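Q: what sequence does this backbone want?
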C-alpha cells in the first residue's frame, strides 16, 4: 500500500514542519486513523502465522527510522 505510506509520511512531515510535537502515541493514532480511512483491509489481512497487523511501538519506531530516518529524542 505505497499510497497509504506516502499519505502518512506527508501528514507527519507537515505536522512536524509547523512545530507539532509528535510522540509515538500521536503517530500511532495518526497511522491507525489514516489506514482505517484509506485501506482498512490492512487490519484484516492475516499473515501466514495467523497474526494480523497492529501498530505496535516497535513497528512504529522501525517504520519511522526506515521511512523517514527519524528516531525518538
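A:
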Amino acid at each position: 500500500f505505497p499510497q497509504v505510506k506516502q499519505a502518512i509520511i506527508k501528514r507527519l512531515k507537515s505536522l512536524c514542519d509547523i512545530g507539532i510535537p509528535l510522540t509515538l502515541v500521536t503517530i500511532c493514532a495518526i497511522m491507525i486513523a489514516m489506514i482505517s480511512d484509506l485501506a482498512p483491509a490492512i487490519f484484516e489481512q492475516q499473515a501466514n502465522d495467523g497474526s494480523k497487523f497492529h501498530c505496535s511501538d516497535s513497528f512504529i519506531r522501525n517504520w519511522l527510522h526506515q521511512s523517514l530516518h527519524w528516531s525518538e529524542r
